[in-house]
Amino acid sequence: MIIREAKFLMSNSRVDQCPPPVLPEYAFIGRSNVGKSSLINMLTGQKGLAKTSSLPGKTQLINHFLINDSWYLVDLPGYGYAKVSKVSRAAWLKMINYYMRHRENLACVFVLIDSRHEPQAVDLEFMEMLGNEGVPFVMVFTKTDKLSGSRTQQNVASYLQKMGESWDELPRHFITSAEEKTGREEVLGFIEEVNR
Ligand code: GDP
Questions:
Q1: Predicted TM-score (pTM) of this structure
Q2: Which domains does the chain have, with CATH numbers?
Q3: Nearest alpha carbon to residue 134 among 102, 166, 156
Q4: Probe residue for ligand 1, chosen from 33, 60, 75 as the CB with the greatest number of ligand atoms within 8 Å
């Protein structure tokens, strides 16, 4: 897919104030610092589109971007940052659960996973929730330039093996690096496929 235009539309703290659900929507989520903003900027080819945050976990807003006048890209607030209080974690969970259940134009959620780390309970639980709610999702392994190719393959394989313990069918996954622009064609091609 060629990105002709990517523009910021709005930020919301409430799902019912999001843009009208008239276009297919693709949401990006993951633990704070996973590389979500960098990935969004890489995919859209606009360096400053999503803010790479200096204060992880601070913003709890749903950010909508309009791509090629034909689909929404959504930057959801990150989770799992240690310094976030229990209160704001509960508020995050409530908003995200509501979004996942009620956003009728949601076509797919991209769950970002730092390729360097062992499977984390918070990510596994989040994907479990998506599965239980019947929300379509795929996994995106990030920052793979930080590892050798074989190490990335090893980590991804062991991650998927762990997932296989609780899933009959594994979600599709993508290997990416915002730094080296790896996985861009694959992710955008997938969105194009789903949009068709
Ligand atoms: P967010 O909090 O999930 O939006 O993460 P950011 O995009 O702000 O990235 C967090 C940190 O990881 C920043 O220092 C980025 O420069 C770095 N980072 C993000 N993606 C990559 C990547 O693909 N490769 C490398 N080497 N660093 C990355």
A1: 0.95
A2: 6-195 (3.40.50.300)
A3: 102
A4: 33
pLDDT value for 82: 61
Output the CA 22–ligand 1 centroid distance in Å. Answer: 31
Low-confidence ranges of the chain (pLDDT < 70): 52-59, 81-84
Q: What is the ipTM of this complex?
A: 0.99
- HSE (side-chain half, CA atoms, 13 Å) at 67: 25
Residues with CB under 6 A from ligand 1: 32-38, 52-53, 56, 78, 142-143, 145-146, 177-179
Query: 179 C-alpha to center of ligand 1: Å?
Result: 8
The rounded Å distance from CA 52 to ligand 1 centre is: 7
Structure tokens at 192: 């194009």
Cα–Cα dist 194/179, whole Å = 26
| CA 74/CA 85 separation, integer angstroms | 24
Interacting residues of 22 by C-beta distance below 8 A, sequence separation 6+: 105
**Distance (Å, rounded) from C-alpha 191 to C-alpha 157?**
24
124 Cβ contact partners less than 8 Å away, ≥ 6 residues apart? 162, 163, 166
